[in-house]
Amino acid sequence: MTRTGAAAGYHGYYHEAVCYESDDDLLAVAVPFLLGGAAAGEPTIVALGERAASVVRAALPGDAPITFMSGGAMYARPAGAIRAYRKLLAGHVAAGAPQIRIIGELTADLFGPVWDSWARYESAINHAYDEFPLWSMCAYDMRTAPAQVYEDVLRTHPRTARPDGTHVPNETYVDPVTFLSDRRLPVPDPLQRAAPRADIAEPTLGDARQAVRDADGGRLAPDDVDDLIVAVSEAVANAYRHGRAPVRLRLWSSADRIVVTVTDGGPGPKDPFAGLLPTGDGLAGGLGLWIAHQSCDHVAMYRDAGGFTIRLTTGN
User: Fold this and answer.
1) Residue 247: closest CA among 257, 255, 237, 256
2) Could you point out which of 7, 106, 206, 209 has its C-alpha 20 to 30 Å from the C-alpha of 261?
3) For the segment 51-68, what is each residue's pLDDT rounded down to a tens digit?
């Protein structure tokens, strides 16, 4: 059995963007893509946001063998999405699928302070999914996507699928190693506009854990607070083990969100995929960063004149 459609004859992950400006544009790309997969007997999956999914569902025959998944559930955390999709893809390949088709969507609520982590996700999956015969389309609503998001979409997707049926290379596409090695400054979290609730120089692991416990206003789920404590502990331990002095922890909080930054004077991890994939040999902090990414709602890592910073966020 062979691959079909635009990915026919292609080996590995065929990764496309769909930058649509109307529902008709979305349907012009999504419907042929999905029906083509169903007709070929390929696992065909929709993981769009709720509104876009309802538009696409209404345009498809009711008996089409197409699976609809909750996009919100799949795209809760970048590292978690990679882990979940790799498991899903491996299962289909083990069952003999010659190709898997997925159309997914990162919705507008991810375009703010957390966008940098999702841009890194879009870049990293070019590597993370390349062992699978996957053809995926990542849909972006240009009516809500800021200019920075659009720029990053073109830099992280090798090609774009257009409403006229063409599939064109993106001239500004950047290979994942180059994109991920640029630890640019993320958009500040709104809580960071105020003075931090805690600002601790050379924190111990006990200091870090207690700061998170003290910041919990009782509206976060206990498991989420525990997960953040694990992530902050990993970040502080990594700073001492793999970074350079000085180490500094800062924490901001509201009733339903906690933001923690851990900064050290070092350059940060050498592995560009650190955190998103369980890479590293244990001596470079790879596993600890991966645990932190699994444990928090949002993680950003960046370099500036002060060194390397990891920002951990839990809550709304």
Assistant:
1) 237
2) 106
3) 999 999 999 999 999 999
